[in-house]
Specification:
heterodimer; A: alpha+beta; four-stranded antiparallel sheet; 7 strands; B: mainly beta; 6% helix
Chain lengths: 182, 288
């Protein structure tokens, strides 16, 4: 609960002051952004811990005596400018999609990446269709965007259970990058 | 552009102008013109109500909306999962029109800014979706985020209205949805954030996307609405999701368009969360 309080406080302040409508001075709006960002940082602690507990196997479930990998979960908050340092710099990574709704959900995942080829495996280990699509030129020029990504990797996270999650394994492949014409 | 699947949405573009001319959802075609406009904000000394400037609290356009551009440069990106049209209207207005495989909506991913400050008035940017639907002055907004509220242009239910502000006086808050109906047809625009919106002519929906007002409106902020990031005017990016279909259960999936809109709104406004993890150098077979 302590980890949620900063964001709770931020939301309370902002709702009381009608924030983000332009009816506060600009430096106040920037301060709200700072407080919100801190709140999200604190919330990441609790989501990370919850997902780690949910996704770890218990000793009874384990058939493999080797120690399992403990995943740390992070988020990318600059996807609105198609920027994500994590996906741009890692050769392999795991994408976990959590469904907060009480019914089955299918989501198209979009992640900014550098020019390369990628494969995506679903939780069953099956290779699933994925697509690379160029990031539109004007987005690349948004002031303040600091990214080498010129493409977005798109794949479909299908049928995620209510309040459940699925993890996908993304890997850079050594294949030649197709040209636009190809 | 079509993925040739029963449930896929489709769009048509005029290759000469780069503008959208038709969308298809629920296997029903709708002629649609979509363009960007801006209103020039009123400039006054704020000493009388009639001299109030357009500002943070007050939307007070002067004159008709001005078209941002007659044409858009565009490129087509077609693929197995998603197909996109990248449109560039000018240096500060662009858009991606997008359809996903097996999804029954058309996404308009707009990007506005930095808005130039080359005149005294400031600019208030809107997108306008123009259809041939006969909406008879009526449109609907979900202004309280729950039920739809019927709005009638130039009308108030409890007094005889004489509008001094023909555009602003017909604007209403749109929390997540604005729509038109004509018989059994319904055309809805879902937003990813609260915006102001209206239907100033039959068959039309417009939504306010971004504003730069160069004068304070004297309602207490004491500052013009000119926000900056990285020493440049703010850039706003967001999405509209368009659905067209029948209000009855005769759509291909057996659901009314209102049901489809509700599910889509949940999927977009309470979107699934994306988390990323390092594999710590493991290959897929090791990780598995």
């Amino acid at each position: 609960r302590v980890d949620l309080n900063v964001l709770r406080g931020a939301m309370g302040v902002m709702q009381h002051h009608d924030a983000v409508t332009g009816t506060e001075k600009e430096h106040v709006a920037q301060d709200y952004t700072r407080i919100l960002s801190q709140g999200l940082d604190e919330c990441e602690i609790i989501t990370n811990e919850a997902l780690r507990q949910l996704s770890s196997t218990t000793d009874q479930q384990r058939v493999d005596p080797e120690p399992s990998v403990v995943l740390n979960f992070t988020t990318c908050r600059l996807l609105n400018v198609s920027q994500c340092e994590f996906t741009e710099t890692q050769d392999t990574f795991v994408v976990t999609i959590y469904n907060p709704l009480s019914r089955l959900v299918t989501k198209f995942v979009r992640l900014p990446v550098q020019k390369s080829n990628y494969t995506v495996h679903d939780p069953n280990g099956d290779l699933i269709p994925s697509q690379l699509i160029p990031i539109a030129e004007p987005i690349l020029k948004i002031p303040g965007r600091q990214s080498e990504a010129v493409l977005e990797l798109v794949f479909q996270a299908k049928d995620i259970s209510p309040l459940g999650f699925k993890s996908y394994f993304v890997q850079k492949s050594a294949e030649k990058v197709p040209t636009q014409e190809e | 552009m079509s993925e040739n699947d029963i449930e896929d949405a489709e769009i048509q573009i005029n290759p000469a102008t780069g503008l959208v001319t038709q969308i298809t959802t629920n296997q029903r075609h709708l002629k649609l013109d979509q363009e960007f406009f801006y209103y020039k904000g009123f400039v006054g000394d704020n000493k009388k109500v009639t001299n109030r400037s357009s500002g943070a609290y007050i939307f007070r356009p002067t004159g008709e909306a001005v078209k941002v551009a007659e044409k858009a440069k565009f490129t087509l990106q077609k693929g197995f999962l998603v197909s996109e049209v990248h449109q560039q209207f000018n240096d500060w207005v662009s858009q991606i029109v997008r359809i996903y495989r097996n999804e029954n909506y058309v996404e308009f991913d707009w990007l506005i800014g930095p808005i130039p400050t080359d005149d005294a008035n400031g600019k208030e940017i809107i997108t306008r979706y123009k259809t041939s639907l006969n909406s008879d002055s009526v449109f609907y907004t979900d202004s309280n985020g729950r039920e739809l509220i019927k709005r009638v242009r130039n009308f108030r239910p409890t007094w005889k209205l004489k509008l001094q502000e023909p555009a602003a006086g017909n604007y209403y808050p749109v929390t997540s949805k604005i729509l038109l109906r004509s018989g059994q047809d319904e055309f809805a625009v879902l937003t990813d954030r609260a915006q102001g919106g209206s239907s100033l002519s039959d068959g039309e929906i417009e939504l306010m996307l971004h504003r730069e007002c160069l004068h304070d409106d004297s309602f207490g902020v004491g500052e013009a609405l000119v926000e900056k990031a990285f020493n440049k005017g703010l850039v706003a990016r967001g999405s509209h999701y368009l659905v067209y279909g029948s209000t009855s259960n005769t759509n291909p999936d057996g659901r009314s368009v209102a049901t489809q809109e509700r599910v889509l709104a949940q999927n977009k406004l309470l979107s699934a969360w994306t988390f990323l993890s390092s594999t710590q150098g493991l290959s897929f077979s090791e990780y598995k």
